[in-house]
Write a structure and sequence with these properties.
The complex is a heterodimer of chains A (477) and B (240). With 477 residues, chain A is mainly alpha-helical. Helices cover 71% and strands 2% of the residues of chain A. Chain A is elongated, with a radius of gyration of 30 Å. Classes of the chains: A mainly alpha (477), B alpha/beta (240). At the A-B interface, helix 1 and helix 8 of A face helix 2, strand 6 and helix 3 of B.
Chain lengths: 477, 240
Amino acid sequence: MSVIKQVTRDEWRFWHRTKLAATIIIIGTLLTLVSAVVNTLEMQHASHEREHLQQSAQAQFLEQPDRHPHRMVHYGHYVFRTPSALSIIEPGVDAFTGTSIFLEGHKQNTAMFSDQRQASGMTRFSSLTPSFLLQVLVPLFIILIGYASVTREKEAGTLNIMITQGINVWHLLLGKYFALVSSGLLMLLPLIIAAIWASIKGESALITSSFVAGYILYILVWSGIVLAVSAINKKNSASFAILVSLWIVLCILLPRIGSSSAAAIAPSPSKLEADFAVKEELRKLGDGHDAADPAFEQLKKNLLTKYNVDKVEDLPINFRGTVAQYSEKKLTEILNQFAEKRMQEELEQAHIARQFGWVTPTTAIRSFSMLVAGTSLETHHRFLREAEKLRFDFVQSLNKVHQDNLSYEADANRNKNADATKAARVDAANWQVLSEFSFKPDTAQTRLFRSAIYAVQLFFWFGLIVLLLRFAVRRIS
Amino acid sequence: MQKEMIVASSLCVRFAKQTVLDEVNFKVGQGEVFALLGGNGAGKSTTLKTFLGTIAPQSGTATVMGMSVTKDIDSIRQKVAYLPESVMLYGHLTGVENIKYFLSLADIEKSAPDIEQALMRVALQKSAWHRPMSNYSKGMRQKTAIALALLREAPVLFLDEPTSGLDPNAIDEFNRLIKTLAADGATVFMVTHDVYGACQVAHRIGLLDNGKIVGMFERKDQAHIDTEEVHAAFSARSQQ
């Protein structure tokens, strides 16, 4: 044990005295720290802004004067989702999908205000999120620090002296491994601090500790890859070239190939195609704004029969409001059908892309990180479903006001003159139809259950590294 | 002969179809300096690597202190010290730090006075002790490595071309040191192509050619082995 400790200590002493490795460690740690701090501040700012916007959107809606109820349907309303506490480290899909939706009648709007959408031109890819740093750049830093861990001993001849002095090669490699892991953990320090902060902010301790454990496992894997390659090769240059190539393949190429393969294996229609298909279906429903549309003839007959009257003017309810309700219900069913199909396609693609975690640890940690942090596609889909439910309830409540509180005659004549328009308004007290939107993160158990397979992928990688190190030890011995 | 410390018995090493060591036999006793002399490709380094356990013999036996290199290499490595042709300890550490580090790897603890005494014994100038080893000359690095061997109390030293690249003064100094170590009971096995140096320091010289021991020269009552005799045999073999 003391030999392992000595080797670890000497490795640190070497990094300290040669300056280069020490500089890389400092840069890596500072970069992650700065990124975490900046992201936290941005999130806090966004959170305050979101809270302010949520309140002002609600207040503006409620402050609307007496109006025709259908105008309020189109006036719409915003809902905002508070991102999970760990999204300061792992923004996940939120950066692309956004965290707010504009709710209005007859439409299912996509989420908006994502970081990526708000950025433009040159700044679009400039945001260095802590998760990107940890998943992509930290492995590169570990390579720069450790590519010569063993090859420099070979080139200098000190490894020969150690071996002929009877040092246990496992002890030597473990000592160097712990040194490399500890340098990686140092760069992980901001993540650990952020995880503690998230726990204080109410995130489950089980989640934050699993999140940190996943990244520790990732550091263990990359440190192992670096050490094994350095131990197997004879020259610093060969070790460096192989490791940088591996980094490009594992961190850059394979995750992208994963996404592209998923899109190729489970193709989904383009937005234009999807919109066209939706429009095609909706056209069959008839225009909900036009109560005389033949599509509502059967509804009209049923109502006349039900209330035993001859014409819609004699109905005790506003037929136009009923049509609006009926039309919105049918329309929502179709929109939901398309939305569910779309979400299934997205999930299928995500599942295919995530299988690449078996061929690259970067995809494994990315999937694990997003699912544990609650910034995954699954969470986004739940947000869309909950927001849609709220939209439907809010629109139908206004349609009900339209049906019950506004006479058909006043409604039908609303465009005749100014007085008629005024007469076709309902009291602003009717705008109290908004339910409070509160999106809660998935439970710790749900998130851990979903991410378990990706933890297995990381353990699989760790197992591979142990085998690789065993091979390296045998080769050196 | 005193206690047999290093023994090669019908030692054969082959790489693919090429025989590198062919029925090599010799014995080195305690306190003896044995030089294996030969030209390039004679099999000197292979012999050395066989005793250090980095090459496995196809037949015959090689033992160090009675232990077989094929069965007890870990135990052998605890007992021997090896000085490669170019001793490269850690350039980022000082001489003293290098010694402390390598001792700690062997799980040996020595006090600062012990280390200083060893460094004085190998005549490494005091001003160099706490300087980074990257500034050391080859001779200084060798002295540090020998000081390490002394502190490890290694009874057997394997040296690979120890005087190559050293200036004449450093060679004399090195030879004196090796003789002192042998007088104190250490067994020294060195491979070299330096005829003069081997004759100066060795008790016996084995002449290796094409993987075979073709001559054995011994210091009897003289201060050193007859250089001319060895040189003649060496040259004759080289011209064949």
